[in-house]
Design brief:
With about 290 residues, the chain is α+β, with helices and mostly antiparallel strands. About 30% of the residues lie in helices and about 20% in strands. A hairpin with a 4-residue loop joins strand 11 (about 275-280) and strand 12 (about 285).
Length: about 290
């Protein structure tokens, strides 16, 4: 059944069964209800995507925003992206230092510059000029959701994201991440790369989570819409196929996607993925494992 509105959230594809995620699931359920109320009230997909990711950044429960971990030099470098499906306008930031909400900065890039992606010091200078909220004391502000020794070559990861279809049929996607644990300074993953980790057009909206290097090499987010357009696949088949292509390269992770008819897909090839779904027909589903 076509949905007048639908949404999905994710809190990353890094969960392991040795841990419990009741706190994260409870918060995601509350955020989901806020988003559902916004959509029921006629809010635009882009605004809901922004609000959902900001809430996930601010909670500190995921490897994004407040919950991000520092890089190998002890510096918090964060990435984010947002995309409007109706216009394909997009904004992104990479290796951003010193701001509470990377997705806010990404949206400002989309709306207030002719560019799509700003990085490093340039992104921070732009965010300052926009008057966006700074992190004054990183060590006091950040509460890493994950902090552990990382084996050489290990791509330990975490991300948050939202995909939205609103009552007017508009689609939007937003993604935010702290990146890999103990990553090299300057490392940028798939999240801020439009087509790799984040995508929205008139067919679907996609937000990815996992080992970014592999998602970049497989261009996963845009591959979903390509499979819908060229292979005439359903959203579920397209999402699963794009993810399988990435997994064939040796990666793990997952994605959330919503289609033009309100169909929602949340496949993953990792041990778990924190995720939540809400639709206009009353579906409410929050879970971490299968």
């Amino acid at each position: 059944m076509a949905q007048t509105w639908a949404m999905a959230l994710h809190g990353g594809a890094g969960p392991v069964r040795s841990k419990t995620y009741e706190r994260e699931e409870a918060h995601m359920r509350a955020v989901l209800e806020e988003g559902a109320a916004m959509l029921e009230g006629g809010a635009a997909a882009l605004d809901v995507a922004t609000a959902m990711v900001k809430a996930l950044e601010a909670c500190g429960f995921h490897i994004a925003g407040k919950g991000a971990s520092p890089n190998a030099d002890g510096v918090w470098e964060l990435d984010a992206a947002i995309m409007d499906g109706a216009t394909r306008k997009a904004g992104a930031v990479a290796a951003l230092v010193g701001f509470e909400s990377p997705v806010d900065v990404a949206r400002a890039v989309m709306e207030n510059t002719p560019h799509v992606l700003l990085a490093g010091a340039g992104a921070a200078a732009f965010a300052d000029k926009q008057g966006l909220k700074r992190v004054e004391d990183a060590h006091a502000y950040y509460t890493p959701a994950a902090s552990r020794a990382v084996k050489p070559g290990e791509l330990a990861h975490g991300t948050v994201g939202a995909v939205i279809k609103d009552r007017a049929g508009r689609l939007a996607a937003a993604t935010s991440t702290g990146g890999l644990l103990n990553k090299m300074p300057g490392r940028i993953g798939d999240t801020p790369l439009i087509g790799a980790g984040t995508w929205a057009d008139t067919r679907c909206a996609v937000s990815c989570t996992g080992q970014g290097e592999l998602f970049i090499r497989a261009n996963v987010a845009a591959d979903v819409t390509a499979r819908i357009l060229y292979a005439r696949q359903s959203l579920h088949a397209a999402a699963a196929g794009a993810l399988a292509d990435m997994a064939a390269l040796g990666g793990d992770g997952g994605l959330i996607a919503v289609g033009a008819d309100g169909e929602v897909a949340t496949p993953f090839v990792s041990e778990g993925m924190k995720r939540a779904i809400a639709t206009a027909s009353g579906v409410r589903d929050v879970r971490t494992f299968r």
